[in-house]
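Example 3.2
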Amino acid sequence: MPITLRHNSKLEVSRVEYSGAIGGVDMHEHATFNAANPVWLGFDCISVIHADVDVSGISLVDLDGVFRTHRQLFEPLNLMFMRRSGWVCESPIGQRFLSHWLEKRNVDKSPWADVRQFNTFDAASEWLLLSPDDAVALKSGDGFLDIARFENGAARAFAR
């Protein structure tokens, strides 16, 4: 399951998980889904790059293209709120791509998101002001229901 969007309604937090082989088309499909379903943009989000992520099918040039597309999809939405978007990366190879993305993001900040990377889920939970029990759920993924999955260029949305 390369990219999975999950949501915990109790915490009002979404969680995007990156694992396995991920292609640029998967990243584009995820951004397109968010633009078409802006309800998911109203929640704080933690993105997790798992240790087993395989980004061999993506180049930094591909990532730049996804970044540009991401901006083009979100700017017309004129979001009127600030959301927190945190990242936890468990993969050294994934960190190279995340660092590149965050560097581009920090040069070209959007007015609708505060984006940060954390070394631990505990630090991310503290930033989100979660209780100790809720911090455990954030780390484990318990209570997060699948909303959509993006794999091999195919998007699959789940009923809510």
